[in-house]
Amino acid sequence: MSDDQSLLEVETLTTTFSTDDGTLTAVDGIDFSVDTGETVCIVGESGSGKTVATESVTKIINTPPGKIEGTVRYKGRDLLSIPESELRQVRGSEIAHIFQNPQEAMNHCYTVGWQITEALQIHRDVSDEEARTKAVDLMDRVGIANASSRFDDYPHEFSGGQKQRIMIAMALVSDPDLLIADEPTTALDVTVQAQILELLDDLQDEFEMGILFVTHDLGVVAQIADRIVVMYAGKVMERGSVLDIFDNPKHPYTRQLLECLPEFGGTGGGIPGALPDPHDPPDGCRFAPRCEYAEEACRTGEQPEEVEVETGQRASCVHYGPGGDPSVVGGGEFGPGGETGAVDGDSEVGPADD
Ligand code: SF4
């Protein structure tokens, strides 16, 4: 990997599924990257394509019915074109996944210690004793109190938050360089959610991992992200640093997502209306059917090109494109009196209660 290369570089990623109702396009030509030691959050409502996008990175989607196109360069290698045996090696040992529901991901017939050592010995040639020592160390590192005496306990003897910590320990057994975390805190209460996010933050520093984090919850994003990619109906609507997105969101969709948060005066509910049918998305901007600023130009052709609206911040909206008028969609003003100041050092946006 050269110095100017990102750990992960995804270009024109398109993932479709063959269904009885025709071709469903879940992800439609998106780009994103993750650097070493950086946390990139892909955010959007359920059905926006964010989970499919991250599952396409390591091809953990069944193909067929899925079909993945584009380029996924990890340390310079295109994961979409290497042999399956090589990809399997990358999958557990270099790129690890953690998922929303540890309940489903764990085997309830085996002790957690056995499951961590099993995961470890798949990747490393270590003795049973060394594996146990490492597993206890990892359990301790992810905050399981009395790790040594809990080693032989079964999953049902742990709380939901502890199970998620154990899943994180299992993901870390191979010292991955990239961790893909898909809604890992959604099933947890607010306090435990905050603890898990803090843990991931600490582990990232310690393990120098890149993290690709998927969530529908902008409250969570505020706590963990360096950069944010906002997805809607398979397309990227906006991207920028966490400060850009929270203090000066440009795209109407991002603004509406933020306005749902209690911290921004919302009720915690969602945006009115529904995402378009992925079998038959609308012409023009995918968000047009729900956008209060939509006009004729928004409803023809393709999704508007993403354009740079501020340094490092890009939005896909006709009003920021050539001949557009940003003031139509609020320009640089957002929230009461313009900039919100919602993320400034210590975030004022706390974890949202799912
Ligand atoms: S392109 Fe049109 S519909 Fe899409 S976000 Fe901009 S104003 Fe709204």
UniProtKB/TrEMBL annotation:
This is Nickel import system ATP-binding protein NikD. Residues 321-340 have a biased composition (Gly residues). It is found in: Cell membrane. It comes from the Archaea. It holds the Pfam family ABC_tran. The lineage of its organism: Archaea, Methanobacteriati, Methanobacteriota, Stenosarchaea group, Halobacteria. Its EC number is 7.2.2.11. Residues 300-354 are annotated as: Disordered. It comes from Halorubrum californiense DSM 19288. Residues 8-258 form the ABC transporter domain. Coiled coil: none annotated. One of its GO terms (cellular component) is plasma membrane. One of its GO terms (molecular function) is ATP binding. The keyword Glycosyltransferase does not apply. Its main location: membrane. SUPFAM superfamilies: P-loop containing nucleoside triphosphate hydrolases. Gene3D superfamilies: P-loop containing nucleotide triphosphate hydrolases. It catalyses: Ni(2+)(out) + ATP + H2O = Ni(2+)(in) + ADP + phosphate + H(+). One of its GO terms (biological process) is peptide transport. It is an enzyme of class 7 (translocase).
